[in-house]
Specification:
This protein has about 250 residues and is an alpha/beta fold. The chain has helices spanning about 15-30, 45-55, 65-75, 75-85, 95-105, 120-135, 150-155, 195-220, 235-245, and strands spanning about 35-40, 60, 110-115, 140-145, 160, 170, 225-230.
Length: about 250
Amino acid sequence: MATANNVDLAEVPSLDLMSELLRRMKCSNKPDKRLILVGPPGSGKGTQSPLIKDEYCLCHLATGDMLRAAVAAKTPLGIKAKEAMNKGELVSDDLVVGIIDEAIRKPSCQKGFILDGFPRTVVQAQKLDEMLEKKGAKIDKVLNFDIDDSILEERITGRWMHPASGRSYHTKFAPPKVPGVDDVTGEPLIQRKDDTAEVLKSRLEAFHKQTKPVIEYYTKKGIVGNLHAEKPANEVAVEIQKALSS
């Protein structure tokens, strides 16, 4: 039978057994944390969330991935979501909150979770709070990856990649040896369609319009930690630790 952390120790090779036990001991001493990460594309959430997840023994919930997983697993909520998608409709807030509710029951979410990509509106935030309240829980901290749009433009529009291997470069921060060419194969690099200034501008406008009220909603509750997301990743990590210990 699976144990509290959803790993059957009988199936763990003896070499891995000790590290698994040490991990569980470390996790047992960690406080529960229920976090929301908010930030525009390129703000560094993808860099920091695995570090937070490991440090606090949390599960990472990206709503887009969870919806796809629920649809693939044909859960009752996944079937409803698929029906909505097939009709070209948006998946309702109640359905998404239901899928989050299902996900946080898993043993891997025992110590808490990181929510990424949700809530995007105040109504979604309220529905999330209501669902957690029924469980006697609440959001502990909202980490706001605050960064100037002009810095994001430089970060994102400078990204180039080698499509076959996935190797990525940046014209300023990690340039290839020869401009426009992969270091290993000498093949041309491409820029993703989303990484252009025009696409970024519309994505940022939508992000700010949607997210500002959500940040204000959680600020009134006194749980927002504002991060200087333009700083190097190691300095942002220190700011996160301070925010989560306060």
